[in-house]
Amino acid sequence: MSDSPDEPAIDWTRRARSSILWMVSSSMIWQGLAWVLTLWTARILLPKDYGILAAAETVLPYLLLLSAMKLPIWVSQDETFNDADHPTVLTLSLALGLSLAIVGWFVAPMLEVAYSIGEIVKPFRALCLVLILRSAYVLPESLLRRELRFKPTAVMNVIVGLVRSLLQIALAYAGWGYWALVIGMLFGEFARAVWYWSARPVNPRLGWNPTTARRALHFGGATTLSTLLWIVYSTMDKVSIGIFLGGEILGVYAMAYMLSDLPMTKISSIMKPTMIPYFAKLRATPEKLENAFFGIVQVTLLIIAPALIGAALVADLGVPLLLGDKWRGLVVPLRVLCVMTVLRAIMDYIPALLLSLDRPGADLRFNLFSVAIMAPGFFFATRAFGLHGAYVVWLVGIPMTLIYAIRVMHQVSGFGIVSFLNAIKAPIISSIAMACAVLAWRRWTQLDLIPVSALITAIVIGAAVYIALLLTIFRSEMGNVLSLLKNVRES
Length: 491
Fold this sequence. Notes:
Elements: H1 6-44, H2 47-56, H3 60-68, H4 71-77, H5 86-115, H6 121-127, H7 129-136, H8 138-146, H9 151-173, H10 178-199, H11 210-245, H12 247-281, H13 286-313, H14 315-323, H15 331-346, H16 350-356, H17 360-385, H18 387-413, H19 417-444, H20 451-471, H21 475-490
Helix pairs in contact: 1-9, 1-12, 1-21, 2-10, 2-12, 3-5, 3-7, 3-11, 4-8, 5-6, 5-7, 5-11, 7-10, 9-10, 11-12, 11-17, 12-13, 12-15, 12-16, 13-15, 13-19, 15-18, 16-17, 17-18, 19-20
């Protein structure tokens, strides 16, 4: 048997490739289903229903963060973690979840005052049960991450997500309004808990080891501040819109954000748990780490960029057709947020890279910069100029944040900026060309098409241009991607 130092990296690469195969395939299946089911639900419900849920979700992420304390990340990468630590992690996660659920119960009336939404107290208190349900499966989920066993998670995301969405649609048709969304979230978390405990059985024994608890909380405290800043950055737009513009406009904006964020969320929610332990295992081989990082960014953008740019191009056709006239105000925010989400996707894996390199301080600097640029901008611009002020903050702030993120990546990892730009050029340039072709067709053709025909034609033209460029101008880049996918399948 060879003692080559590359053998551990090769073994972890093969395991990660197998995981990525399941994640990518399940993401592609679920992404299409999720869009259809989300649009179906939105066609039944009203913007104000989503406004109530969006207002609740401006506070819930803070409670979820504090209840988790980054335990899954700590378990997945701590080299000394062993079976004796299981009872402490289970006890700690349950105690945090229950404590934060109680805090949420008493916070609920404050949301009614802040947003002037009288119906928000009961649904927010119900959603606090998510804190307890999620804390119940922290341990088995973390162990699956540590072992790079993501097939159970990939299958679960599709099955649980599908059942949850169908349940929400049934309740929406039955007239449950925003409670359809609340019950759907609670069912999803309960089903995930059952699934994780079935996929990775663990002795459900409570216990307490002060040393283990201190190690976990020390790691969690250092990285939680960074994530807290990220939550401020990612929720301040909705907080500002809810306070200054009201629940109904917040509902429209929240729907635009959810639809634009859906492709990235579905892929990242499965990919990111793999990335931190996978990148951490490749730290000893920087060249392999660089190739893996750039390859994952490229593959993600190849899926996300055309979907989002395409959605922005046909929003005026698709929104009235798919959601009805009550959602017509969705067109402009959807277009802005789709374009901004492409830029966000370019830097989406940089925090995972920084954490895998054991550089939480760099991740903290990145999030401090993002909050300093975006949070006050959203608050004051929305207060002064309404939704148009929020759009300006997105259009100015996200490019600045992207430039800073690439700079931090280069400083910490040593990866070349030019190499990073080369990794993203194929999906970005092809998506821009696709946009130009669709805009030219819509600008210069005088075909009197009904909306559904115009929508289908625009999609066909855009897809044809995008694929043609990838198979001609960017043939070498696509060859590398196909080689990667072939290796994944063989592994």
